[in-house]
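Input structure tokens:
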């Protein structure tokens, strides 16, 4: 039996906008090397559980503190059998009005394309589709047709509705080409 992890992210803090957390905490924590101590503190808040919300946040912080998306992926792979498969969901945070990230969404996706070439039979990247992105259909086509991305992810909590008319060409393309679409609501 082959295990498929159907919902994973491998982006790092470099892909997260400056104001993803309030008060500029993202860059402050990174600048002063405080991400790991914060993760340790969160893990220790409830000594009776290692599966509560604090522990989930701690794991999120530790994973995002990796140097590259490949480092995050390899860390994830340690928890699965060698033949496991991974659906990697990119997240377009460029339009969430939280400032700039050191590496924008296009850089995140370029790095995923490199990973797809390196792990062609293990990872299935999905491209996040935000209708506010200029030339979204061309962008999607390029990564699906030329770079081997396998699907489209919609994340409406980032500030749009799934019935946004700008997504209609995306839906038509996906239907015509049998490209799966995953929608996340929170």
């Amino acid at each position: 039996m082959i295990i498929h992890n159907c919902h994973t992210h491998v982006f790092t803090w470099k892909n997260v906008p400056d104001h993803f957390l309030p008060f500029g905490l993202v860059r402050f924590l990174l600048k002063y090397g405080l991400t790991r101590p914060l993760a340790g503190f969160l893990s220790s808040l409830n000594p009776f559980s290692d599966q509560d919300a604090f522990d989930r946040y701690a794991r999120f912080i530790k994973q995002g503190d990796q140097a590259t998306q490949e480092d995050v992926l390899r860390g994830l792979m340690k928890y699965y059998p060698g033949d496991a498969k991974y659906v990697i969901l990119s997240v377009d945070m460029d339009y969430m009005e939280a400032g700039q990230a050191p590496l924008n969404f296009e850089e995140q996706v370029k790095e995923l394309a490199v990973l797809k070439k390196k792990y062609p039979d293990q990872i299935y990247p999905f491209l996040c589709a935000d209708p506010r992105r200029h030339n979204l259909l061309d962008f999607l086509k390029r990564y699906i047709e030329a770079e081997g991305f396998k699907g489209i992810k919609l994340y409406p909590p980032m500030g749009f509705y799934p019935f946004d008319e700008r997504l209609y060409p995306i839906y038509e393309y996906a239907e015509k080409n049998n490209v799966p679409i995953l929608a996340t609501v929170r």
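The first helix runs from residue 25 to 31. DSSP finds seven helices and five strands in the chain.
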